[in-house]
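Dig into these lines:

——
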Amino acid sequence: MPAVPFPLFDWRGLLVDPGLARHGRAVSPVAARGWAVFPLRPRGKKPLVRHGCHDATVDPALIRTWWSRWPRANVGVACGPSKLLVLDIDGETGSRALEDWSGRLGPLPPAPTVTTARGRHLHFHRDGAQLSILIIEDENDVRVLLEDILHLQGHRTVCAGDGREGMELFKPGAFDLVFTDLGMPGMSGWEVAKAIRAQDPKISIVVITGWGIHMNADDLQATGVNRIIQKPFTVEAIIRLVSEERAIREGQKSA
């Protein structure tokens, strides 16, 4: 399984199509999405405001002031305050990589798209709170893929290459969710789940396996595992699982 073959933008200002900025008319609809914007030098990435992306705003009055002063300014979007993560698809190489990646793992969720000089940007909205997730997987491609999918959704990840390393990294209360492979040398996923559950009774544990294992709820509870994900998995399956776990946690906090 390949890693995400594109740059991911998180907290940085994001370059948007220069045509978006003409006289500021098209900037307000961008801000209306909840995307915090700030002016950049025409056809460039250098901010025109003192604190760059930290000055980004959705305030229509301030946006009009900026683009009245710099009518041909490019548009920067501050991804962090806007709860955005962005895939930067450059040229035919990027398009082919995206098609290959989607063909192997399933399509990405629909996303607003902006055309750039060399390709396009896909804007993904991050709903809800960030989760801290431990990934324990001995296959490098699978480990990196999981990390990229979770970063795309705005979550924080820590990775381990086997069960023993994962247990060294694990601290009770430090993580909301654990993904662990089942068949690993030295310490199996079942052993990892049992050891983690003994230290943290509330954490969610997901076992990833290509062995075609199916268990009912009672059998899962006995192993200390919350869910099983079969390989090969899709991007949408991981996103849906993590979104469900996040909704459960947010519900528990509001209860």
Observations:
- DSSP finds eight helices and twelve strands in the chain.
- The chain has two domains: 1-126, 132-254.
- Confidence is low (pLDDT under 50) at residues 1-24.
- Residues 1-126 form one domain.
